[in-house]
Structures are given as structure tokens and as C-alpha cells.
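Researcher: Can you fold this with nicotinamide-adenine-dinucleotide in place?
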Amino acid sequence: MTIPFFPSIKSICCIGAGYVGGPTMAVIADRCPHIEVTVVDLNEARIAAWNDSDLNQLPVYEPGLDAVISRARGRNLYFSTSVQKSIAAADMVFISVNTPTKTKGIGAGQASDLRWVEACARQVAQSAKGHTFVVEKSTLPVRTAATIKSILDAPQKHCDGAGTSPTFSVLSNPEFLAEGTAIKDLENPDRVLIGGEDAESIEALADVYSNWVPPNKILRTNVWSSELSKLTANAFLAQRISSINSVAALCEATGADVREVALAIGADSRLGPKFLNAGPGFGGSCFQKDILNLVYLCHHFGLPEVASYWEQVVKLNDWQKNRISRLLVHKLYGTVTGKKIAIFGFAFKADTNDTRESPSIRIALNLIEEGAKLAIHDPKADVQQISLELQTPRQETTAGFGPEGSWDYVDDVVDAVKGADAVLILTEWDQYRTLDWCHIATLMRAPAWVFDTRSVADSLKVKEAGLNLWRLGEGED
Ligand code: NAD
Ligand code: UGA
């Protein structure tokens, strides 16, 4: 077999300094000190935060990220708003911008909004010099690489310094990191996937990863397989959560316990134990948007049955969120109007400050609609972000007693529970595993409830404290 010639990458530019671009490039820079890595973004405040000398001010909270940043930043890792200059200096440009669901026009509610990706392709076409590898890092609909390539290959008004037009190779290299474990996932990935049209380009990118990723974990495919693998990997993961959440509801109805059922299912080596935790529904910026995008693509390619199969995963997820708020109202004698409810956890999962598509949003909105007064606690989620998600300003109160149908943010769980009728645990933060339920019970209004959607509370201690406990997926005898 002949080994193709591929150029060694010396300079990388990543467009998009978000949850993916920032941590991913930080790890590449950390593991490849011989490569200059510049992360660019139009958002000046975000870039300033990435450059902040106080590592607590980084725009993304991820365990271990501060250590990686402190090793690489200023050495061979830079954050900048000089988009054009950084593209011009790069051998390889990663596109890592947002690809949300379209909110209007053709495909609204399902298709990906690719305006930011298209803008990047145009910026690269304008500013690149020589031969540039353009890498799709964002999650994209299958065949987007063809769109990017056609923009890059369109004749530009300018030429580079040598008087020759720049040339491009487009690669797909989707990111599989999960928030909260991003650094671990990047440093020790299950696989790195590279889709390309020619072996030389694929090897140029594989060479970067081979600085720390074992060869057998670097998968090479055609571009379309790579793009589609990312969408479908997320769909499979989300499907597993909707499956176990559907089983949880059946457990509650039949007296079975979803934790025991999950243990039994996961012991089958063909299925495995991961991603079988029942909960309030999946959140995060990607699962829903990626499945909806898949549904849109299936319709586009004339496969309505396949589309409705995957759409059901999202429908079940919506149902789960609504079912939890309905159940809480039902247990509190059919009304929560004027009642204080402590919400423990607003981030979509533990160990992240990200609240995008968090199940807490729908559940909180439902309870506010019912007239509840919410006292929201989260160790990392930012109060302004919560305010944006709930689309209403917080009602600041000393004891957490706002008007009916309002919410307040509290730093301390003790303040959250004072006078509350219920605690609703929505995120599996470690600190909720070791709460002093005896003390909490003395502060709440009796008869008080704990609704645990994540199975983190010590159920024995909750019951011993005289509190009523409802655990998701646990049938009543
Ligand atoms: P994000 O919204 O956190 O960051 C995107 C950044 O791109 C923003 O800061 C925005 O200002 C910037 N941007 C947009 N257009 C730009 C332009 N033309 N020039 C310069 N900057 C521009 O998004 P994210 O969570 O990092 O996700 C990025 C992509 O990665 C998405 O396609 C997402 O589906 C995918 N992804 C996300 C995750 C995750 O855990 N968040 C994991 C895997 C894949
Ligand atoms: C997910 C995938 O796990 C990543 O591989 C992918 O790269 C990423 O989406 C993406 O494309 O954005 P992420 O959303 O960060 O990562 O976090 P997950 O750990 O997958 O959790 C997603 C949601 O599912 C969370 O709300 C979580 O609480 C929920 N979940 C997860 C459960 O309810 N039960 C489980 O067993 C696992």
C-alpha cells in the first residue's frame, strides 16, 4: 500500500469559540505544541472571557478545562476576534459555529439553520491563502460539505499574494464530546471520525489527532457517512433515553422499579449499562435539534415512515417533561397556585453551566403557568441565563416568596426550601446526594414532598425525615 503524501499542519484557525470550539482547540493545542491554534469568534465578550486571566471567568465550565487552558494559552493557543487574519494564516480551518433549528421559513422547527456555516465558508473563501483544509466540526445535515465546497470553489475577486487562487479540501470531523466530560472525552475519545474525499486530506487531519489518539481509534470514511454518523449517533443516544423514560412510566404504573429494570437490561453485553438513567427528559443544545434535522432529511429524501419513527423520540421527551409537572400538581392536591416549590438544578445535566433545552425550562414554565412561586437553585447555571430561558425576569425576594406564577434564584438550598411545599430535583448535581433532609424537613411546610427525577436523594433519609417522596420510575406498592 502506498502511503499518500500529506502536508504537515502548522497552523490551525477555528471559527467559533463556543462549547465545542473552545475546549476542542484547547486540547489540540495542549497535545500539539508544534501547531499554532487560534480560535476566533465575532462575539467580543466571549473572546474576552476566554482571554481572562481569572480562569473562573472562562465562558464554558468544564472540569479540567482551566488546567488545559493555563498550559496552552499564550504558548500556542490564542483567542481572537481577527477572523480574516487568522484564516489567512491557517493551513487548516475548523468550522465550529452554531447550527440551531430554523425558527421560520422552509423547514421551520426541523431543518438546521445553516446561515452561520455559510457565512464561515464565505469568510474562508475570501481570506484563505494557498491550499487550505476546511474541516466541518459543527454538526451538519448530510451533504453540507458539497454546499461548502461550491462556495469555496466559486471564483473570488481577489487572489493570494503569489497571484494564485487559493484551493481547498473539505473534511467532515464531527465532535462527539459530551458536556461535563468534554476534556476527558477529547483527551481519550472513543473514536475520532474523519470523512473526506481524498486520502491526502484525511491523513493531514489524522496526523494532528495521532499526536495523542491511538491509530485504531481514528476512523476514516467518506464525507457523507461521516456527516450522517454524527446525526444518527445522537439519535441513537436520545432514543435510548426516551426508551428508558417510557419504561419508567410503565414501572410507576405497575410497581416495578426502573433502576432495577435498567440494571437487568444493561447487564446484557449486547446492550450495555450506559445511557439507561431515567430522568426528566433529555436536554442540551443538540439531541432535539439533531433528531429534528434527521426527521427533516428523511422527509426530504422521501422516507416519511423513517421520519415519524425518529420524531417519536422527541415527542416522548416532550411528554415526559409535561408529565412530571402534571404529576407534581396532582400530588399537591391539584393546585400549586401560591405554593412555593424549590427547584434543585437548572442545568441540563450535572457538571455544566449549560441550560440550553434543559428539561427544567419546560417544567418550570408549566409550574409558573399553574401559579407556583419557584425558588431555583443551581450550583453553576447563571441567573441571567435562567432569565433568558424562562423569558421573564426573576422576582427578587428575601424569603423566596414572590407573587403567584413567579420565580426567584437562590444561592443556598436552605433558602430555597424555607416554607416550600415541595422540592423538585431536576439535575443530578453531587451536592443533592448528601443533603441534610432532617434539617430541610423542619424548614418546609407540612405535608411536604420531595420529587426526585434523577434518583439522587437518599430515599431512606428523606422518608425518615417525614417527607413524602416520589421517585421517577418507582412504582407504589
Ligand atoms: P455555541 O453557540 O456555543 O458556539 C458557536 C460560536 O460560533 C458562538 O460563539 C458564535 O458567536 C460563533 N459564530 C457564529 N458564526 C460565526 C462567524 N461567522 N464567525 C465567527 N464566529 C461565529 O455552539 P456549540 O455548542 O459550540 O456548538 C457548535 C457546533 O458543534 C454545533 O453544530 C453543535 O451541534 C455541535 N456540537 C455541540 C456539542 C456540545 O456539546 N455543545 C457537542 C458536539 C457537537
Ligand atoms: C450529547 C452526546 O452524548 C455527545 O456524544 C454529543 O457530542 C453531544 O450530545 C452533541 O452532539 O451535542 P450532551 O448533550 O453534552 O452530549 O450530554 P449527554 O450526556 O449526552 O446528556 C444529554 C441529556 O440526556 C442530558 O439532559 C442528560 O441528563 C440526559 N441523559 C443522559 C439521561 O436522561 N439519561 C442518561 O442515561 C443519559
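Model: Folded with nicotinamide-adenine-dinucleotide in place. The radius of gyration is 24 Å.
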